Amino acid sequence: MNRQTTLAKNDDVARNWVHVDAEGHILGRLATEIAMVLMGKTKPTYTPHCDVGDFVVVTNAEKIRVTGKKLDQRFHQTFSGHPSGRKVTPLRTVLENNPERIISEAVRRMLPKNKLAAKQLKKLKVFAGPEHPHAAQNPVTLEVTTATS
To answer: What is the pLDDT of residue 145?
Structure first.
């Protein structure tokens, strides 16, 4: 029997647009679903060395949930590269000021640590409110079952 494995090529990939509403979803569980779509693991043509994932548009990032006391116990760090250039910000403050950063950082850390991750992360579009400018691409709504009650 001749069975051949078909490998996807970057030129042959059909990219779709997926819309995710983050309202009421837990941060880590939502980030894993988004990372799977960005990597292309939801497609039958998944190939590890090619970027076969879809574009993902996330709205309502300001209404994301975290469990436990993480809003007060977790911190985001930035480094300027200079001595004493470390800035530590509580998660609650980052969620109030820049909620897009929380989701994009969580997804970035769940992507593979290689050169493809930068390409995959460019396909992630995160917005704090319910409106987004990508309606012309007709994104398909992704139903994520991680909502809290």
So the answer is: 77
- pTM, full prediction: 0.89
CA angle centred on 37, ends 144 and 8, rounded to 5°: 150
Paired sense of beta strands 86-90 and 17-21, if any? unpaired
In whole angstroms, what is the distance from residue 14 CA to residue 51 CA?
11
Distance CA 124, CA 29 (A): 16
CA angle 53, 59, 64 (to 5 degrees): 105
Say how far apart CA 99 and CA 59 lie, in whole Å: 10
Specify burial of residue 88 (Cβ count, 10 A radius: 0-12, 13-18, 19+): exposed
Find the helix packing angle between 27-39 and 99-110, rounded to 10°.
Answer: 60
Q: What are phi and psi of 70, to 5 degrees?
A: -65, -25
Distance CA 63, CA 110 (A): 21
Domain range summary for the chain, segments of one domain joined by +: 67-98
How high is the pLDDT of residue 58? 97
